[in-house]
């Protein structure tokens, strides 16, 4: 569709035909100075010779870089363009509008400056080396839209190499918001997480991260399904990542298809696309929760889900209970940067989910188990909780 718009032969510019092009013309970001340069005195302080004093001080005491540059307040949004939104492997140039969008959401919702960086490589070693070499300019690294399974290794290696937070939002942002919504759904129904059995459709980055955080939070059991069915230890076709996943999920030792796993399940979490037959949905436990988050087409349409579930969530903004990563990542990074954390730990992620859930804890209904992205209470709550957790876990530097 976009190609058709750009190639119109009627002489009109694309942004005349489609307002999305008008909004993106010239990009969605700009660099803005925080100090004035009005005269020679200002220039001498902002640049030479005044800047030399600051450079020399940082050379002698490297930690001063956090106080006298933007480093401690800025995040790099890094992608290789291999798994962009629902568009797939579209490459670094085509990914830039999304990375710019991510950067302005950081600023709008968390007060965090961010710089989009699209790398022209999908080689794991090259990505790790490049990001590590860029790291001195940034207070944190947000990995974005990098395909699984490479994203797992890239994140793990960068966390090991760097002393600043590294966070793959497609994994952990999705997981944090999902856990927050599930906590409130359980509270609304008078159940504890430990009483629930969940089925996750999708064993990619988001599905695995959701499984991990649900286990950390104390869910009763969770089974993850890929295209071939339940990820279980008896399967001979599992990758190394999925073998690890099988080792800590599926305590009930279920095998077979997604549809069979859904029988009697309390929770469905969809991060895969595809369609789940209504007959399978009908076999879920009474009062089930359905979080069908594929975009633009949920795995279970909300109209179908509402027939069988007490709480329904999607990834879409035109239905209640949108599971949107913007509820998590701005506050997570704002909190981590506030205390100059060296890492984003599991405890910090759990704290973010608890804080996010608490924002609407006194306003719960079937259509409100998660706040709106525009709820001004969200970022401050998540920021404060993440900063406190960083201090408690010993990864804060101030």
Give a description of the structure.
This protein is of the alpha/beta class and 398 residues long. It folds into two domains: 70-164, Malic enzyme, N-terminal domain (Rossmann fold, 3-Layer(aba) Sandwich), CATH 3.40.50.10380; 170-398, NAD(P)-binding Rossmann-like Domain (Rossmann fold, 3-Layer(aba) Sandwich). The protein is built from 18 helices and ten strands. It has helices at residues 2-6, 14-17, 19-24, 40-46, 50-60, 65-68, 91-110, 124-134, 150-161, 169-189, 205-217, 240-248, 258-262, 278-281, 302-308, 329-338, 346-359, 378-392, and strands spanning 74-79, 113-118, 140-143, 166-168, 197-201, 221-226, 229-230, 267-270, 288-292, 309-314. α8 (124-134) runs parallel beside α9 (150-161). The protein is globular, with a radius of gyration of 22 Å. The chain starts with a helix and ends in a 6-residue tail after the last helix. The mean pLDDT is 94.
Features:
single chain; 398 residues; alpha/beta; Rossmann fold; 2 domains; six-stranded mixed β-sheet; four-stranded parallel β-sheet; 10 strands; globular
């Amino acid at each position: 569709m976009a190609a058709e718009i750009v190639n119109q032969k009627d002489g009109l510019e694309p942004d005349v035909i489609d307002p999305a092009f008008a909004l993106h013309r010239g990009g969605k970001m700009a660099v803005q100075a925080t100090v004035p340069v009005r005269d020679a005195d200002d220039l001498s302080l902002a640049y030479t010779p005044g800047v030399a004093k600051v450079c020399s001080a940082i050379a002698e005491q490297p930690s001063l870089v956090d106080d006298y540059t933007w480093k401690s307040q800025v995040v790099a949004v890094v992608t290789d363009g291999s798994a962009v939104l629902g568009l797939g492997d579209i490459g670094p140039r085509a990914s830039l509008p999304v990375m710019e969008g991510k950067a302005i959401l950081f600023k709008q919702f968390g007060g965090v400056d961010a710089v989009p960086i699209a790398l022209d490589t999908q080689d794991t070693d090259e990505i790790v080396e490049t990001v590590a070499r860029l790291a001195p300019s940034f207070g944190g690294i947000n990995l974005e839209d990098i395909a699984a399974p490479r994203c797992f290794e890239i994140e793990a290696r960068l966390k090991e190499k760097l002393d600043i937070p590294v966070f793959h939002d497609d994994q952990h942002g999705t997981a944090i918001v999902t856990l927050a919504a599930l906590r409130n759904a359980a509270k609304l129904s008078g159940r504890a997480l430990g009483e629930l059995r969940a089925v996750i459709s999708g064993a990619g980055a988001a599905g695995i991260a959701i499984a991990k955080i649900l286990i950390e939070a104390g869910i009763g059991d969770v089974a993850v399904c890929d295209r071939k069915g339940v990820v279980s230890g008896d399967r001979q076709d599992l990758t190394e990542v999925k073998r690890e996943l099988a080792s800590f999920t599926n305590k009930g030792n279920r095998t077979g298809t997604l549809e069979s796993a859904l029988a009697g399940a309390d929770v469905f979490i969809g991060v895969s696309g595809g369609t789940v037959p209504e007959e399978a949905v009908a076999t879920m436990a009474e009062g089930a929760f359905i979080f069908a988050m594929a975009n633009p087409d949920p795995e279970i349409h909300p109209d179908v889900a509402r027939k069988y579930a007490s709480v329904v969530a999607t990834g879409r903004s035109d239905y209640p209970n949108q599971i949107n990563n913007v509820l998590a990542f701005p506050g997570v990074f704002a909190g981590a940067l506030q205390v100059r954390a060296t890492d984003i730990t599991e405890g910090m992620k759990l704290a973010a989910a608890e804080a996010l859930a608490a924002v609407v804890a006194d306003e719960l209904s079937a259509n409100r188990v998660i706040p709106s992205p525009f709820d001004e209470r969200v970022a401050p709550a998540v920021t404060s909780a993440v900063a406190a957790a960083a201090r408690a876990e010993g990864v804060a530097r101030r």
